[in-house]
Amino acid sequence: MKPDDIHRAIGILREETRAWRTPSVTVVAEASRSPFKVLISCIISLRTKDEVTTQSSARLFDRAPTPEAMEGLPAEEVARLIYPAGFYRTKAEQILEISRRLVAEYGGRVPDSLDELLAFRGVGRKTANLVLTLGFGKPGICVDTHVHRICNRWGYVATKNPDATEMALRALLPPEYWIEINDLLVAFGQNLCHPVSPRCSICRLSDLCSRVGVAQSR
DNA sequence: AAAACGGGGGC
DNA sequence: GCCCCAGTTTT
Fold first, then answer.
1. A126 is known as an active-site residue
2. What does strand C contact on the protein, if contact means CB under 7 A?
3. How does pLDDT run across A99-132, given as a tens digit for each residue?
4. Residue of A152, A151, A148, A146 whose CA lies nearest to A190
5. What architecture is the A3-23+140-208 domain classified under in CATH?
6. Which SUPFAM superfamilies match (predicted)?
7. Which of A2, A5, A112, A126 does the annotation list as catalytic?
8. A31-136, CATH topology level
């Protein structure tokens, strides 16, 4: 995989995304420009489907849209509001601890540096980078399951470690592309390059893919 | 009854 | 780097 390839991929995805991207608003897009909502949505989204995350987040933010309001809620209520997302007890604790620390240590604002974000319990590189990109519009490479799967299929990395994928993409592309490539790859993964039964027959990037001819489906 | 949903943290 | 963990929803 070379820089030329990724630039061609970006060009094609820019065109293709109009064809198959679903109009549905993702939870992150909805929470866009509110670093706090991006952050908390990310906690809720762990191991749960996007739609459930969206609904649970909406219910929670309806009740507590800010760190100040959030830290005032009893843990049981937070747990109840996000119940369908699963792991509600752990998530409620993390949400409350983060909210408390935001108020106590940052005056109720979400910090905008990777290191400060990573210092919160429950916040890893994926969440921290998503807060930077979607919450603050700062460059970041956010490797979720979609991005990681696609980069493996394209031969960027041959690892189970998403951090390696993040570093590979950082090295391959200048920062001005980072937000866009993330958006394009996630949409590509959600709509076409699925975990199982990807829609290879309508994919224009199959020459980049190690999967071609192996288990083509549909 | 089993699979799908995806990331963080500990060792 | 590998392995373990948290629960609900869907099939």
1. yes
2. A 46-48, 52, 83-90, 159-161
3. 999 999 999 999 999 999 999 999 999 999 999 9
4. A146
5. Orthogonal Bundle (1.10)
6. DNA-glycosylase
7. A126
8. Endonuclease III; domain 1 (1.10.340)
